[in-house]
Design a protein that fits this description.
This protein has 249 residues and is an alpha/beta fold. Helices cover 44% and strands 17% of the residues. The chain contains nine helices and nine strands. The protein has a seven-stranded parallel sheet, with helices on both faces. The protein has a two-stranded parallel ribbon with strand order 7-8. α1 crosses α7 (205-216), α3 (70-81) crosses α5 and α5 runs parallel beside α6 (153-173). The longest helix has 29 residues, at 104-132.
Length: 249
């Protein structure tokens, strides 16, 4: 439940080692959040920094590839901290299109995490938030899913599915007191993209986190990071396919 000052009090991060996810949680703790659950595969996560800031931190074992465990995980998190004010699924696999072309099984496995895992945990979280009558699900989508490029179309197609799912879920929750915030970052410079050439209008995890925390304090439902990407993709969506295919990787 949000505290007496209206600040977020409890946070659940799914993907407890995510750079973006941890950056969001750190900012929320600095603003008053006091109870945090980090759900991570293997059950170990970096808690020292959050505890030094005064947060009570719980760590749970979480496997995005095992949807049959997701509903129970949400309930276990709620049992630890009470009502969930903010739920942040921040897990995924970037992968390589060249690898996917050579290994369709690997492609299917990663899509199951990048899309199917989010569907499963998203629905389980939405049910909990609806029952509470409040709370926000933060869905980390990507501009890669706004218009899918040939350079990473397996990853992009999963993000496109996730983005559509999040928008539909937001409509389904309308009027319940719970809501969904869809976040569409551009290229994020960090551990996942190490060794890759940054794209134009690249950002870092801190910038994404700042934008998310700002949105949580408003009624925003869609967040582009950086904000000027929204205008850029309004144009890119209209490019003829022969032109789109020739864009640089």
């Amino acid at each position: 439940m949000r505290n007496a000052l209206g600040s977020v009090d409890t946070v659940l991060l799914l993907g407890g080692r995510s750079e973006i996810g941890l950056a969001i949680v750190e900012r929320l703790v600095r603003r008053g959040a006091r109870r945090v659950v980090l759900a991570v595969r293997g059950g170990t996560a970096p808690v020292d920094g959050l505890e030094r800031l005064g947060a009570e931190v719980h760590v749970l074992d979480f496997d995005a590839a095992r949807p049959e465990t997701h509903a129970a995980l949400i309930e276990e998190a709620a049992a630890k901290v009470g009502d969930l004010d903010v739920v942040i699924p921040a897990f995924g696999v970037l992968g390589s299109q060249a690898v996917y072309d050579a290994d369709p099984v690997a492609a299917a496995r990663d899509v199951a995490v990048n899309f199917g895992g989010h569907v499963s945990i998203g629905l389980a979280a939405a049910r909990r938030l609806r029952e509470q009558g409040h709370g926000t699900l933060v869905v980390l989508s990507s501009v890669a899913g706004v218009r899918v490029r040939k350079a990473n179309f397996v990853y992009g197609s999963a993000k496109a599915g996730l983005d559509g799912f999040a928008q539909g879920l937001a409509d389904a929750l309308h009027g319940s007191g719970a809501r969904v915030v869809v976040v569409r970052p551009g290229f994020v410079i960090g551990r996942m993209t190490r060794g890759m050439t940054p794209a134009p209008m690249s950002v870092r995890a801190a910038e994404v986190a700042d934008a998310v925390v700002e949105a949580l304090g408003t009624r925003k439902v869609t967040v582009w990071v950086p904000a000027r990407l929204r205008l850029a993709f309004a144009v890119m969506r209209l490019l003829p396919r022969p032109v789109w295919r020739r864009l640089p990787r």
